[in-house]
Amino acid sequence: MVSFFLSCHRDDDSFVARLIDDALTARFGSASVFRPEAGAEAGVGVDAGRLRRLAKSTAMIVVIGSRWRASLDGPTDGPSDAVGQEVETAFALDVPVIGVLVDDAEQPTQADLPSALRPLGDARFWRVRLPSAYSDNRRFVDDLATIVETDTAAAGRSVPVLLDEAPVRLVMPPPAPGAAVVYSTRTGDLEVAEAARPWLWSPGDVARYSTRYEVDTDEHRVVLHVPLPSRDFGRHFRASIAAVFRVIDPAQVVRRAVSDAVPPVRAFLLDTCRPITWEFGVSEIGDAAAAVRELLDSDLLAPGGITLRSAHTELEPGTGDTDRWSRLERASVGAFSRRVHRYRGPGAGRRPSTGARPRPGSGVGVRPQPTRLLVARAPSQVPMGQDLSVDVRLVTKGRSVHPDAVTAPLTNLVVADAGTPVTVTVHAPAGLHAEGPLQQTVLVRPGEDPAPIRFGFGARTPGLHRIDVTAWAGGTFLGEVSVEVSVAAGGPFRDGRPRRGSLAAARARPGEVTMEVRFDGTRYTFQLRSDAGALFAPVVESVSNTPNAAVENAIRELQQLARGGSRYSATMTREVIRSAGIQLWSELVPGDIQDQFWQVGGSMSAFTIATDYDVVPWELLYPLSAQRDAGFLVEQVPVVRRTYGQHATSTIGLGNPRFVVPAKAPTGAHEEVAAIRAILGAADGDLITRADELLGLINSGSLGATHFACHNTFSADGSFIDLDGGPFRPALLAEASIRKPLRGAVPLVFINACRSAGVAPTYTRMLGWAQQFMASGAGAFVGTLWAVRSESSARFATAFYRSLAEGATLGAAALAARTEQQDDPLDPTWLAYAVYGDPFATAA
Question: For residue 19, which of 125, 124, 100 has the smallest C-alpha distance?
Answer without folding.
Answer: 100
